[in-house]
């Protein structure tokens, strides 16, 4: 029966899910949390959140070794639909994991422009502890300037102090590698 409940959950069929729960009784919260995490990695529907909340699941749950939120998990998997659903459910785009990363940092690390754009539009802090450094790293390492442009246009401070303790501009100038893209990065940051 647990398999049938899982199938109803996965399909987003709230009525079937509730009917099966009424027959069986209760399903372990840890099972529902696992199903929810799987849905986030796939194609999350508002119904998944509705079913999880009805079973007492806190949508702000943390997962994995670094305590990622569901929103971070969706960004890390580049799941645009899941990010949309979670943002509509008012999950905090500025929550940090144990490594001070936000969902926006995960989107930048995964080089997922649509997810990063959604998160910025939802109010992600572009001056997060790692955000500018991540965007600068993608630009300098790969010549991919989209993220750096996005965070700077959204108000990231090019004079911010990075986790290394260096001001961002000083770090770009002093970088002994990735010199190929250094001038482009500097010109973006100095605009």
Structure description:
The structure is a single chain. The protein has 191 residues and is mostly helical. 58% of the residues lie in helices and 0% in strands. It is built from 12 helices and no strands. It has helices at 2-11, 14-24, 29-41, 46-54, 70-76, 80-88, 103-109, 113-121, 131-142, 146-153, 168-174, 182-190. Helix 1 runs antiparallel to helix 2, helix 5 runs antiparallel to helix 6 and helix 7 (103-109) runs parallel beside helix 9 (131-142). The termini are far apart.
Shape: elongated
Average pLDDT:
89
Q: Which bin fits the share of residues in helices?
A: 55-70%
The beta-strand count equals 0
Strand content: under 5%
Summary tags:
191 residues; mainly alpha
TL;DR of this structure?
This protein has helices at about 1-10, 15-25, 30-40, 45-55, 70-75, 80-90, 105-110, 115-120, 130-140, 145-155, 170-175, 180-190.
Question: Layout of SSEs?
Answer:
Blueprint: H1 2-11, H2 14-24, H3 29-41, H4 46-54, H5 70-76, H6 80-88, H7 103-109, H8 113-121, H9 131-142, H10 146-153, H11 168-174, H12 182-190
């Amino acid at each position: 029966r647990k398999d049938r409940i899982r199938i109803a959950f996965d399909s987003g069929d709230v009525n079937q899910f509730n009917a099966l729960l009424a027959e069986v009784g209760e399903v372990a919260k840890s099972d529902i949390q696992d199903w929810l995490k799987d849905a986030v990695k796939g194609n999350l529907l508002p119904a998944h959140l509705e079913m999880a909340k009805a079973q007492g699941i806190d949508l702000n749950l943390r997962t994995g070794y670094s305590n990622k939120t569901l929103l971070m998990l969706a960004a890390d998997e580049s799941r645009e639909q899941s990010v949309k659903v979670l943002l509509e459910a008012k999950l905090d785009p500025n929550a940090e994991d144990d490594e001070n990363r936000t969902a926006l940092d995960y989107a930048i690390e995964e080089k997922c422009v649509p997810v990063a754009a959604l998160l910025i539009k939802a109010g992600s802090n572009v001056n997060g502890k790692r955000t500018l450094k991540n965007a600068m790293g993608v630009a300098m390492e790969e010549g991919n300037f989209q993220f750096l442009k996005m965070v700077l246009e959204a108000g990231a401070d090019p004079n911010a102090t990075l986790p290394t303790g260096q001001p961002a501009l000083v770090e770009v100038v002093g970088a002994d590698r990735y010199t190929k893209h250094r001038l482009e990065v500097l010109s973006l940051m100095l605009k």
